[in-house]
Amino acid sequence: MARHVVAPVDELPPGSRKSIEIDGRPIVVFNVKGEFFGLLNRCPHQGAALCEGPLIGLASSSDPGEIEYTKLGEILRCPWHGWEFDIRTGQSYCDPRRFRVRAYPVNVEAGTNLVKGPYVAETIKVAVESNYVVVDL
Amino acid sequence: MTSPIAGGVDRDLHPAVPHLTSLLPYLNDYWRDQVTTRGMTDLISQSYPLNSPISSRPDWRPAQGKPGSDIADMQHQALDKFGTAYGICNPLYGVQMVFSEDMANAFCRALNDWLVKEWLDKDDRLRGSIVIPVQSIEKAVAEIERCAQDKRFVQVLMLVMGDMPLGKRHYWPIYAAAERLGLPIGIHAGSAYHNPPTSVGWGSYHIEDYVAQAQAFQTQLTSLIVEGVFARHPNLKMVMLESGFTWLPPFLWRLHKFWRGVRMETPWVDRAPLEIVRSNIRFSLQPVDAPPEPDTLNRLFDHMQSDELLYSRPTIRIGSSTAMTCCRRDYRRISCARSWSTIHTRLIRA
Amino acid sequence: MNVQLREPPQAASSTAIKTAIADCDIHPARATADELYPFLAKRWHAHLETFGVHAYQGMMGGPPYPKAQPNASRRDAYPPEGGPQGSSLSFMQKQLLDPNNVALGVLNPLNTGQGIRNQDLAGAICSAVNDWQIEKWTSKDSRLKGSIVVANEDGVSAAAEIRKRAGDKNFVQVLLLSRNVEPLGQRRYWPIYQVAEEAGLPIGVHAFGFGGNPITASGWPSYYIEEMVGHSQCQQTALASLVLEGVFERFPKLKMVMVEAGFGWAPSLAWRLDKVFARLHAEVPHLKRKPSDYIRDHIWWTTQPMEDPENRDHLFQTIEWIGWDKLLFATDYPHWDYDDPSRVLPAGVSDANKQAFYLDNAKKLYGIA
Question: Rounded CA gap, C96 and C78, in Å?
């Protein structure tokens, strides 16, 4: 597993996202209320770029007409066919057993333990004071 | 001509009301006078014009009167001939077309009483479907509760083309009553003609209306599934009568595909549509909308992806098809035994 | 939502399509409300601003069944210069035509004059949309071909519009919708068929439209998913009407395309029609052939939304019953239920069938070399 820097953490405030390519793989990274999540930026259905999809909540129901709406902001809706994916796990809600988006663990790491990546130049510049968003691949 | 299995169940018999006046003994004084004073004639639905070839097999057509109006004919032609153990009567009298809920209620009660006196009482093999005045949900529920006390009523009958899609919550008190009483709902081809009989308006022909029944079963199936009828009533069973089945696999492919993308609109649909159909709905084999080649039919059975969805035994209704001679007979026997017994539980107990 | 991109994402399909394809269902959109004004008589500008359009459904703006995505379109299809999805030729070229090697793109404009109750307005808007298709799209990119939209409920006006455009190479077909005031086989629509046949133009029958009828034979359903699945049933009944009314007997050279309603339903419907016709043909003596024969000779289907059974053999069997020569590939760009050409066919299709499916059937039907 290799770790790659995505961006300085303050370039990715809560509610924002960034799509990047690492080793030829398209990745999208989200900041949801201070927590970071990463997904392969390709819907397993027909390949749409998931980074264009909205983040909504999970609608579930124990009885027709009653709707429980939870996990606000944690469900990514594919911009094409609307399939819903839990950004924590990649779990889809349309056909949970069959489809899952590859989820990438994303951590916030302090500036000193970085590997070289696309932001290498920038991160070095602001290295010791800032927190960096780092991706494990 | 295929022979149905002796000792089996005929799920779709159509005893005919000879004339509206046949119901007079079963109406109260007010309604009896309404019928005669206002010159009401008969309630014949366009879905089944009397002399249309699909309304009766030629050899079952009596010299006089409506086909299916004489119990002796039914006994001879349908029951004795095939060694039928039980026959479920589904009267297709046009009471659903009436607009007044009080009138509909009076006619439905009379029709159900007529069925008991003139059919069920006269042959122990016969069972009945409760015809309900859907014009009033309250009255429909009351009629179900009234008739269910007679254990020979084994099903509630509704038409596939009514006032509203059948999944709508408006109808749920009917489903609650049926589920509570252990009665399946039989959805039969036919229209109340309160809406155009196709989803694109009024066509010109009887043949067109009849073809459109298949599309009506499809949209009703969508409605029943996405509205969550079986989420609310998991023990309710429905049988699609004279629906055919060859349209079912591509229908489910399409519904499944859209459900995946628009799941959030109806989040109570928490299982794949095929699974919901498998657990709660069955389809009549007739009409077999397919060429009679064994290869084609066997492929269609594979497309169904379930051995349980069909009433495998051909229903003996007027105008039955001979296509089933080509089918896998062993498949039919296995599914027959398993499938019908879970739907019409009252048949065994009555 | 604050979306920051390092670079715009590319469609995953772009490397997979090496050979040219036809896309038989593209939906061009207007960038602004008044984009049609240059093609529309002045009196209609004020009329639209004062009274709007009066359709056969109640909403003045937006559809009665809310869509699954804004404008019923892919969220990644907004042009960078602004405007709704499908409104920019340059972005359509960049996102759809170029990467997918589209050699022939058939435009099916929606939100036109069709389904409008004021027939004069309907005819005016339709004619304007046809002019707009040439000006904005087909004259600027020769891969694109337009569809002649007509005031479907006004046979006289519709026939005149088709005659006006007949022979114009900017157009490859006439466009109708599946839901109208009456089923499409009814005689009020025959003037359209007569002129289309004379002009040698196929007719595309696209899902949607409103004619004032509930969209099922048992009333109005509750949900958008019911409308979407229901296009299959509406198309079936529209086709049954066309066959049973004898449209193909009366107009033997007419060709029709069933657009955006799927095709899996076709074998069962054809078999049902034949079965019932065998017993009830006395009611329809004007039909001289079996219904399935008319369907075989006169009907094509676009593929989107592609049938998607778990077992691909079931799909192949269904296509065999219909004929590989009858399917026309379509993406439905920019709509959300878009089919990506590189993902849509499972493995196991012969090269000859793929070629027919993706391009040759369309070129042959539309007379493109």
Answer: 12
CB contact under 8 A, A18 and C6: yes
Query: In chain B, how many domains are there?
Result: 1
C-alpha distance from residue B339 to each of A54, B253, B287, C63 (Å):
45, 23, 18, 42
Domain annotation for chain C: domains and CATH numbers: 19-366 (3.20.20.140)
Main-chain phi, psi angles of C113, to 5 degrees: -80, 0
Enclosing H/E stretch for B116: helix B101-118
Surface of B (242-261) touching C: CB under 8 A? 244, 246-247, 249-251, 253-259, 261
Which residue from C6, C13, C75 is facing A47, i.e. has the nearest CB? C13
Q: How confident is the model at residue C169 (pLDDT cuts 50, 70, 90)?
A: very high
For the question of whether the overall pTM of this predicted structure is more than 0.95, the answer is no
* Mean pLDDT of the region B238-263: 94
Span of B62-66, B103-107, B160-164, C343-347 with lowest mean pLDDT: B62-66
Chain C residues touching residue A27 (CB < 8 angstroms): none
Q: How far is CA C129 from CA A9, B37, B167, C133, C170, in A?
A: 49, 60, 40, 6, 13
B69 min Cα distance to partner chain C (Å): 23
Distance (Å, whole) CA C269 – CA C237: 9
C102: left (phi over 0), alpha (psi -120 to 50) or beta: beta
Chain C residues whose CB is inside 8 A of the A94 CB are none
**B146 lies in a domain?**
yes
Is residue B95 classed exposed, middle or buried when 0-12, 13-18 and 19+ CB atoms within 10 A define those classes? buried
Question: What's A3-136's CATH class?
Answer: mainly beta
Q: Which pair of structure tokens corresponds to residue C177?
A: 């919708």
CA C26 to chain centre: 8
Give the residue numbers spanning the domain of B342: 9-349
The 3-state DSSP class for residue C104 equals strand
Question: What distances in angstroms separate CA C268 from CA B250, B296, C242, C322, one per listed residue?
Answer: 9, 11, 17, 10
Q: Is the ipTM beyond the 0.90 threshold? A: yes
**Strand A66-77's sheet: what is its strand order?**
A55-63, A66-77, A84-86
Q: Which two tokens stand for residue B131?
A: 């015809």
Do A87 and A31 touch, CB atoms closer than 8 A?
A: no
**Containing H/E element for A86?**
strand A84-86
C11 phi, psi to nearest 5 deg = -60, 140
Bridge partner residues of C259 (DSSP): C206
CATH number of the domain encompassing residue B40: 3.20.20.140
> Taking a C-beta distance cutoff of 8 angstroms, is the pair B132, B156 a contact?
yes
CA angle A124, A129, A132 (to 5 degrees): 65
User: Who among C222, C336, C337 is closest to B168 (CB)?
Assistant: C222
DSSP character at residue A49: -
Taking only the tens place, the pLDDT of each residue in B155-178 is 999 999 999 999 999 999 999 999
**Sign of the C-alpha dihedral computed for residues B203, B208, B209 and B213 taken in this order:** negative
DSSP, collapsed to helix, strand or coil, labels residue A19 as: strand
Query: Is residue B2 assigned to a domain?
Result: no
- Please count the other Cβ atoms lying within 10 Å of the Cβ belonging to residue B119: 20
